[in-house]
Amino acid sequence: MDQTIEEGRREKTKKKEKRLLYFDFSLLVIILTLVGFGLVMLYSSSSYSGQEKFGDAAYFLKKQMMSAGIGFAAMILIALIPPRFWEKVSLPFYVFSILLCALVPFIGVEINYSKRWLKIGGQTFQPSEIAKVATIVFFAAVLCRIPKVLNSLKKTLMVFLMALPVIGIVAISNLSTAIILAGIVFVMLFVTSPKYWHYLLALALLCLGMLLVVYLASKGGDAGNYRFERVQVWLDPENHEKGYQTLQGLYAIGSGGVFGKGLGESMQKLGFIPEAQNDMIFSIICEELGLFGAVCVILLFLLMLWRFMMIASNARDLFSSLLVVGIMAHISLQVMLNIAVVTNTIPNTGIILPFISYGGTSVIFLLAEMGIALSVSRIRLN
Asked: Residue 306 pLDDT > 80, yes or no?
């Protein structure tokens, strides 16, 4: 009798060990490393600004640490929820995010000349960050049911039209986030679709459109449009007042050399780069840690994307796989666009570097997304 009870206990222990064995600890370590590194660089880049504006060098660090704490709590909770739960709530979640984004133009809070925030109970947050997660969840739920429908251009366009409400509403106040949302949907459609030619056609048309905008901007066309003005600043930052931030960022990158000036030794963060802790933080990383530090950051993100690929390819079902594909598209697009902006490869779009730039709502919902990915990894081979 005792032997039977002991064997039963051993069997239960083995099952628990098996479940734990397939939890993606590699992804968890990468997340913790990125957030920890982000907090260090945030303090380094924002200490001067915090002391000048608020009399507290750790002002931005404290706020970011609080948001990161909330984000980690959300990540742990979400990692314990089965992925199929998100399929059930995908439609109301998506509609809710659209309604929140629709409120921004009317009752939104303006910060740094941009109206992108809502204020509830004394706390501000960006509904567009919620929209990113909701869009990933909603389109994963839609696409997992109709993969064979995407064999024609007409039907694919009809599915993409379902994203237009959120993309259009977000674009009113935040074009850069609208571009990321469109990119997320495009990648998820591309991965699900059995045909590729119409995606190549869409990319070709997009490139032609971008070339046309650049040509018109270079000729001084539509000078009153601030988006055309951004293209003009990108083409010739030295002869535009608004090219100041771009130039200072490039100076920071160039002065860093191979190994940088040393942590905390940046000169450009001392008021030369406005809001250095936000979307230009990569330039401070380059200045203080040099090319070596920049490459290490990029490698961390590449490792994260590799783990996403492994989790997606081993997921139990198409819905879970598409959830991780959407998250992978979000992170990769945001990282590429941020680095491209900082290096003046593309016009300034105001996109922050995930996990590293200052932004409470951003880090909370990024960690929530990580919880979804960890949830998929946790059960993939149980």
From this structure: yes
